[in-house]
Each structure stands twice: as structure tokens, then as C-alpha cells.
Amino acid sequence: MGESSSQRKPTINGGAPRGPSQGFNDPTASCGRPSRGEDTRQHSNLVGQQVAAGFPSPADDYLKAETPLDLNEHLIKHPAATFFVRVRGDSMTGCGIFPDDILIVDRSLEPAHRKVVIAVVNGELTVKRLHQAGGKVMLMPENAGYQPIVIEDEMELEIWGVVTCVIHPV
């Protein structure tokens, strides 16, 4: 006989891209992602020298732009499985994720312990750090003002994707 919903164990689903027909609303629907086939790449130039983040270094008389830079090449490893989501809330400020930041999420990556993930818990999206230990799964905030989400047997959990980059203004 099949398991009742109270006996069902939560599962962590990662991997191949999935569409909105998988039982929850597609969070990319309002994320401004271009339609397939539309080329929206913006090329900028990469300055030919590195900049010191510690002590200043002697600079050339000018900064020479030498190499075209495509941020897609540096930030997106799996284009067909990569999405952008905007952050609402402050539960992850301790790891540098702030309200209105844009997260780059790769759905092709396998979720793993300590990775920051986009999770769907009982139909609701959240960004948290995945914690797996002793057969227990928790979604950990990075802000002391929030409690961990302990995944119980009766809860539905899907790991929608792994956060690979955060984009925010300085």
C-alpha cells in the first residue's frame, strides 16, 4: 500500500530544469528573463590591469580597455538551467544577500549541505542555507532574527535550485 501523507518523507529534488507544471508556481515568471532565442548579451570591456583591494599600487597613466567582457561567460555556467530571482526580506544578510538583490540560480546543480538554495516549502519559495545532518533537513537563515525551518515528515520540500551568485549595488 502507498504511504499516507503523514508518513511521507521530504525529499530534496535538484537537477534538470523543470517547468511550472511541477506543482508550484514558476518563480521566474516575473523575473525579467528574456524569451528563448532572444540575445540580450551586453558586452563591456575588461580593464587590462588588476585593481588593488588592499594598498594602492602605482597605476599606468590611464586604464586601457583591452578585452571584451561578457558577464554571461563568468556568471552563468548552464544557460538553459539558470534563472534570476529578486530577493524580498532580510533573513540572509549574514551571507551578503540583501533585500532587492538579484540571485543567479542554477537548477542543474545538485543541492548539497551548506549550499545556499532556493527552496519550495509547502508551496512557498524561500532562500536559505541547506543543512543536512543525522537524517534531518533544515533550512538555515543567515540572520539571528530568524529561526531555522526544520523540515518535518509532513512538510513538502523541493530544492528548486542552487544560488551561484548575488548581484547587488555597492
From the alpha carbons, calculate the radius of gyration and give it in angstroms: 20 Å
Reported CATH architecture of one domain? Ribbon
From N to C, what is the helix and strand string? EEHEEEEEEE
What is the total tally of β strands? Answer: 9
SS-based class: mainly beta
In one word, what is the shape?
globular
Superfamily (CATH H level) name of one domain = Umud Fragment, subunit A
Provide a count of the helices. Answer: 1
Widest sheet: strand ordering: 3-4-9-5-6-7-8
**The level-1 CATH class of one domain:** Mainly Beta
Distance between the termini: 56 Å
Let me know the average pLDDT. Answer: 78
CATH topology of one domain: Umud Fragment, subunit A
The biggest beta sheet is recorded as:
7 strands, antiparallel
| Percent of residues in helices | under 10%
Our estimate of the beta-strand percent is 25-35%
**In terms of per-residue confidence, which ranges show pLDDT below 50 for 5 or more consecutive residues?**
1-9, 15-35
